[in-house]
Design goal:
Layout (H helix, E strand, L loop, with lengths): L6 H11 L11 E2 L2 H11 L6 E5 L5 H9 L2 E6 L5 H7 L6 E5 L7 H9 L4 E6 L5 H10 L4 E9 H6 L11 H9 E9 L4 E2 L6 E8 L10 H13 L5 H6 L8 H10 L13 H11 L1
Parallel strand pairs: 2-3, 2-5, 3-4, 5-6
Antiparallel strand pairs: 1-8, 6-9, 7-9
Helix pairs in contact: 6-8, 9-12
């Protein structure tokens, strides 16, 4: 059987099925076996694993995953790819393809049915426009996760690792810091894809913590505070939180909390560490 991780075999499959790339789905298919192997190795896939693959495309990485894992569940939004996947994955009996938007899939139910609620591993080559909602959704939903190994735009990988005071620091950086240990595995040139994206990509591995590095009374409330703090970056923290529709905190409460923390009322959210957001959340709660 022909592996898809090279330009010739990939082009042959696309031609055979008359496939046209959809800009709205941000489709870029990987054509570099070296990078594919790096992703699979860094995800540490074994025969015990149930893997969730988001956006399998024509099944390039799915083939590699199916050979290493016990079971692969691949969620693909583009219905034009479903017959191609049926063809390229026909030799594997341990792959299930679901034609849906991953943000609408009940992943917790899948983990329960397919993996007895044991942590799954997520592997994906994610389009830029949907990276943040998918990563935040996976982390905040508390689905049992071991790790998330994803190919993303290089600058998004950088955003996942930055600290306070930098322009890329935001809700995504804080969510990653709270839930996982992040490590960039490799930088990937645009030449490794068809069609070529305009920017470099990076493979980043997020190993989910057993227990977050900071304690907070109400995690969901803390992330509402974090989101409100970054919604309008030029606003002070006081203004951002007071005007946030879903927080229901008064200006006096915020000022009182900041005073207890020894912070001035002109402070901005982008200067706060994860620990400070946790403290602020507990004080406002």
């Amino acid at each position: 059987m022909a592996y898809l991780g090279n330009p010739g075999n990939t082009a042959a499959v696309l031609n055979k099925h008359g496939f046209h790339f959809q800009k709205k789905f941000g489709q870029n298919f990987l054509i570099d076996t070296h990078i594919l192997e790096k992703i699979i190795d860094s995800a540490e896939i074994t025969k015990d694993d149930c893997v969730l693959e988001i956006g399998p495309g024509i099944g390039t990485m799915t083939q590699y995953l199916a050979e290493r894992a016990r079971e692969v569940i691949a969620v693909e939004i583009d219905k034009a790819l479903i017959p191609i996947l049926a063809d390229t994955l026909s030799e594997y009996d341990n792959v299930t393809v679901i034609n849906d938007d991953v943000l609408k899939v009940d992943i917790a139910k899948l983990v329960e049915e397919r993996n007895n609620n044991r942590p799954i591993k997520v592997v994906a080559n994610l389009p830029y426009y949907i990276t943040t909602p998918i990563v935040m959704g996976l982390l905040e939903s508390h689905v049992p996760l071991d790790s998330i190994t994803i190919m993303v735009q290089k600058e998004v990988a950088e955003r996942m690792q930055v600290g306070p005071g930098t322009k890329d620091y935001g809700a995504l950086s804080l969510a990653v810091a709270y839930y996982c240990k992040a490590e960039v595995v490799t930088i990937v040139s645009p030449n490794c894809f068809i069609p070529k994206p305009n920017v470099a990509s990076a493979v980043i591995r997020l190993k989910v913590y057993d227990k977050p590095p900071v304690t907070v009374e109400d995690e969901a409330f803390m992330f509402r505070i974090i989101r409100a703090s970054f919604q309008q970056r030029r606003k002070t923290l006081v203004n951002g939180l007071t005007h946030a529709a879903d927080l229901n905190v008064s200006k006096d409460q915020v000022l009182e909390a900041l005073e207890a923390m020894g912070k001035s009322e002109s402070v901005r959210g982008e200067t706060f560490t994860l620990e400070e957001f946790a403290r602020l959340s507990d004080l406002l709660k």
